[in-house]
Amino acid sequence: MPIITPTKDASTITAEGQSTQTLIEGVVLKTLVTIPDERGEICEVYRPAWELHPEPLVYVYQIVIRPGKIKGWVVHEKQDDRLFFSFGAIRVVLFDNRPASPTYKCLNVFTFGERNRTLIVIPRGVFHALQNVGHTEAVFLNMPTRPYDHADPDKYRLPLKNDLIPFDFDSTLGW
User: Fold this and answer.
1) pLDDT tens for the 175 residues of the chain, in order
2) Does residue 20 sit within a domain?
3) Which 3 state secondary structure label does DSSP give 84?
4) What are phi and psi of 108, to 5 degrees?
5) What is the pLDDT of residue 9?
6) Three-state SS string across 97-110, please?
7) For a FRET experiment, which of 15, 49, 50, 154 has its CA 20 to 30 Å from that of 161?
8) Which of the 8 DSSP states describes residue 48?
9) 10 in a domain, yes or no?
10) pLDDT for the residue 1
């Protein structure tokens, strides 16, 4: 019988609660505050004064992902995405495929939802895929920097399993 040696956990957060993950160049994260009261709650979604992105708000749409389902891989050439995660539990995986980027070939993995509502800016050239890792529908908004062009969509796709992106959605998380 082979001897199994345990592996030591790598640090994933600092003592101050900040992620130790190297953030892909141009990706911006803003954790948003949810204010509850006896009637319900409110959470600001986007405010230009936050100066997260220089381009104006021109288009907004909502996406729902059913439990266990995955949307992606997708990349844009002309637009940046600005995603706000509001309900459910969504794993967001990013892959920097921009050869001139200082984080070229870098992979980021995050989980967002109603417990940590977040606005993320995903720059053009960065592949992204989103997986509902919860047990209910997951809901998010996209506020891309360009309206959708029905005649010429700025959307390029790869299959979930491919030779470019070193991420496997089928791998079981946990220990």
Assistant:
1) 788 888 888 888 888 888 888 999 999 999 999 999 999 989 999 988 898 899 999 999 999 999 999 998 999 999 999 999 999 999 999 999 999 999 999 999 999 988 899 999 999 999 999 999 999 999 999 999 999 999 999 999 999 999 999 999 887 555 5
2) no
3) strand
4) -120, 140
5) 84
6) CCCCCCCCCCEEEE
7) 154
8) G
9) no
10) 77
Amino acid at 47: R
pTM reported for the whole predicted model: 0.89
Token pair for residue 44?
């600001």
Structure tokens belonging to residue 53: 């992105």
CATH of the domain at 39: 2.60.120.10
- What's the total number of domains in the chain? 1
Domain-embedded: residue 129 = yes
Per the CB < 8 A criterion, the answer to whether 130 and 72 are in contact is: yes
Is 21 within the bounds of a domain?
no
Cβ pair 42, 86 in contact under 8 A: no
Q: Do the beta carbons of residue 134 and residue 113 sit within 8 Å?
A: yes
How far is Cα 99 from Cα 166, in angstroms, rounded to an integer? 16
Range of the domain at 151: 28-157
Would you list the DSSP string of 99-156? TTSTTTT-EEEEEEETTB-EEEEE-TTEEEEEEE-SSS-EEEEE--SS---TTS---E
**Residues across the chain:** 175
Tokens 């979930």 correspond to what residue?
Answer: 160
